[in-house]
Amino acid sequence: MVSLISSPMIRPVFGLALLPLMLCASPATAQTVRAPAAPAAPAAPAVVLQAPYEPQLLRLAEIMGALHYLIGLCQGAESSGWRREMQALLDAEATGGERRERLVQSFNRGYGGFEQAHRGCTPAARLATQRYVTEARKLVADIAGRYGN
Questions:
Q1: Crossing angle for the helix pair 97-117 and 82-93, nearest 10 degrees?
Q2: Residue numbers of the domain that contains 60
Q3: pTM over 0.70
Q4: Quick one: which of 55, 49, 46, 110 has its CA closest to 80?
Q5: What is the DSSP code string of 67-130?
Q6: Which residues contact 135 (CB under 8 A, 6 or more apart)?
Q7: Does residue 140 lie in a domain region?
Q8: What would the pLDDT profile of 42-58 be if each residue is shown by its tens digit?
Q9: Looking at the predicted structure, is the pLDDT value of residue 21 above 70?
Q10: Count of domains in the chain?
Q11: Is 3 inside any structural domain?
């Protein structure tokens, strides 16, 4: 964020506005000894740059979590390869740090949302599975088409 005061257009105006105050200051004020300045606070951490496809990737992770639960519910835990796919995504895109944490949270949100709503394989669970597989395919095609090599 750029400070208005440090802006090249505002700095001269700000300096001119302070000029009368500096000229009116008494000599005693100018001669006072100042205490040493407190150490500056550490700079705020740099803004983490996100990939332009970050929102789609987070949505994909959420869908993968939902599919991991739903396919496991309807076809058995051994049938779901979505957990392995998520691990491959993490290995490729986020080996650590805040980005990895966001992706894992999205996966867990997708899993947890369906875990709360579906206790058995119902027609609604099967329909959600079909829709999420379709959406995941679209997201992957979109990300690969726009940002792939």
A1: 160
A2: 54-147
A3: no
A4: 110
A5: HHHHHHHHH-GGG--HHHHHHHHHHHH-SSHHHHHHHHHHHHHHHHHHHHH-SS--HHHHHHHH
A6: 63
A7: yes
A8: 554 555 568 899 999 99
A9: no
A10: 1
A11: no
